[in-house]
Every structure is written in structure tokens, then in C-alpha cells.
Design goal:
By secondary structure, the protein is an alpha+beta fold. It has 2 helices and 3 strands. The chain has a 3-stranded antiparallel β-sheet with strand order 1-2-3, with helices on one face. The longest helix has 11 residues.
């Protein structure tokens, strides 16, 4: 995953399907525009890590996973 050149605003975990789920992340670019990225991730640890990074509220979880 390439992080966009900007600031994360929020994210939403969309419905999952067999073996994975989609995360839609909203961010503001340096020019002020608001853009969206959709990430398709497998269930489990990778999804938890991405949610923790995007949420930036549980740095202990990020450290534990890494």
C-alpha cells in the first residue's frame, strides 16, 4: 500500500466477503482536496494492522503486530 501525500481523515470498513474485506480511506491532500482510496485486505492480522494505522489510536496494537 502506498500512503498518499496528505493527511488521513477517517476510514470505513466495508462489508467483507469470503477471505477479505474492503477498507475505504478518506484523506485530504496537500492541495486541500479530499480523496478516497479503497484497500482490499485479507481477514485477520493485516486488516487489524491497517485499521490501527489508519485510526492512529492504538499504537500498542501496531507495535504488537510488527
Amino acid at each position: 500500500m502506498t500512503m498518499p501525500d496528505g493527511t488521513w481523515l477517517d476510514y470505513e470498513v466495508m462489508g467483507g466477503s469470503l477471505g477479505g474485506q474492503s477498507i475505504v480511506a478518506r484523506y485530504r491532500t496537500r492541495t486541500g482536496a479530499i480523496e478516497f482510496d479503497t484497500l482490499r485486505v485479507p481477514d485477520g492480522t493485516l486488516a487489524a494492522l491497517i485499521r490501527a494505522i489508519l485510526d492512529r489510536t492504538d499504537q500498542n496494537l501496531v507495535t504488537d503486530i510488527l
